[in-house]
Amino acid sequence: MRGLLQLFAAYGGFLAFVLLEAVSLVLIVQYNHRQKEIFSNSWGLLSAAAERQVDKATEYWGLKARVLELQARNIKLMEERDNARFSTAVFRDSMQVDSLAPMFTFIGANVVSNSIVSTNNSLRLNRGEIHGIKPHMGVIGSDEGIVGIVRETTNHYCRVMSVLHSQTRIKAALRGSGYFGTLTWNGSDPLRMQLEAIPKHAELAVGDTVQTSGYSQVFPKGILIGRVESARIEPGENFYTISVRLFNDLSKVEYVYVVNNLMREEHEELDQAGNE
Amino acid sequence: MNNATLIHIGRFIGFLIFQVFILKRLSIGWEGPVFFNFILYPLFIILLPLRTPRVVVLSAAFAMGLLVDMSYDSLGVHAGASVLTAYIRSWVLGWLEPRDGYNVNHSPNKARMGAPWFFRYASLMMVLHLLFYYSLDAFSPVFFVDILLKTLYSFPLSMIFVIIVTYIFDPET
User: Fold this and answer.
1) Of A68, A83, A117, which residue is a domain's last?
2) What confidence tens digit (pLDDT) does each residue in B37-60 have?
3) Rounded Cα distance, A196 and A182, in Å
4) Which residues of B touch A (CB under 8 A)?
5) Mind listing the pLDDT tens digit for each residue in A207-229?
């Protein structure tokens, strides 16, 4: 109360001015027809403009939820595709019994750190064990292309070995002809990788699409990787030296999907049985 | 309640009656800015003693404006302009302060401060008051030019009465 009195003593003139002026303005707007119209008109414009700004802001806040929603929808569509499902089609009693079992599922993730400058690059994603990420899972881009393979996981994060890594060996095939080889990176250009072990009798043209072969259990078949930019056969070699221009630019990758192969354990069992 | 207070209360009533019953009838308006409007009542605010507390100046100005509004049928417009004028008064006085300062027991009038100083002060206050009044009357910056023109037309007409009243009564308090 004393503070209030002191405040009034110091700013009494100003406070009285504000109060009386406010009363006057209220009276003007209440009892004068013309001023009332002007006021309500201006107020309408002002509140409409303010509402627009608020809408804009909330739209921005809503973007995070929209991204998650779209990720979920994309995952659903990706899981619907044939390359993500296991066909159990067989002929039985002269009838084709057709059913598709889910084989690949996808987990949406955001890149939290990335590098492209070293010869052994890695990324970090904001998804980890509690989201179902395990080592050796593949990582693909949100639109096209492959990103890498999960190496280590923690509860909330995982580290991904980028395809831009000197040890990258990805089984890739030419779309159409089906010849397959191994995709490697020579450590120089983050937009180009090298496709090795395509035999020299393969029919090949510059511009052919390179996709995942599906022979490893890391990526589904048919994920687009890039386009053949140049192909030549060194003298005395039996294989092409092919440069592949990647579809995705790993220097600005932001949203990715982690590939979860539901039948990986069966493959591992087979591998173990073969080793014994 | 001393003598000076009674004089100012009497002046309050006098200006109010003069404004409402005489000057209001002299005001003739056409469409647009050409507008014979005589505004004298701010002279009451102008002449209030220097030592009057600011809150009292503001309240008196508000009361005066509100009573004028009641007869002009524009509730709030004169009151708002008067309160603004009353608030700006101390700044105008600070601006025009003579080299050796004010005698706080005096009123800022012609008898105490001399004609040149007083008319400079009074005309500045009147211009500001008219500007405030027509701004609140138009109530939108869109009518900026109209506001300025109306102020320009009304100012000399109002100043005539300020001068007449000052020379007839020439009060010391």
Assistant:
1) A68
2) 889 999 999 999 888 888 899 999
3) 5
4) 53-55, 58-59, 61-62, 65-66, 69, 74-77, 79-80, 83-84, 86-87, 90, 136-137, 139-140
5) 999 999 888 888 988 889 999 99
**Residue B143 to residue B137: CA distance in whole angstroms:** 10
Tell me, yes or no, whether A112 and A235 share the same domain: yes
* Overall number of domains in chain A: 2
User: Is the CB of residue A5 less than 8 Å away from at least one CB of chain B?
Assistant: no
Burial class (CB in 10 A: 0-12, 13-18, 19+), A51: exposed
A203, A124: one domain = yes
| Pick from A20, A38, A42: CB nearest B62 | A20
8 Å CB contact of B74 and A39: no
Taking the CA atoms of residue B98, residue B104, residue B106 and residue B108 in that order, the dihedral angle to the nearest 10 degrees is: 50
Q: What is the interface pTM, i.e. ipTM, of the complex?
A: 0.88
Q: Which helix (H) or strand (E) holds A270?
A: helix A264-275
- What lies within 8 Å, CB to CB, of B165 at 6+ separation is B40, B43
**Residue A38 lies in domain:** 2-68
Count CB atoms within 10 A of the CB of residue B66: 20
Distance from C-alpha of A3 to C-alpha of A170, rounded to nearest angstrom = 75
Residue for token pair 């899972």: A137
Separation between Cα atoms, residue A32 and residue A36, nearest integer Å: 6
| pLDDT > 60? residue B30 | no
Q: What is the DSSP letter of B69?
A: H
Residues 6+ apart with CB under 8 A from B57: B45, B48, B86, B89
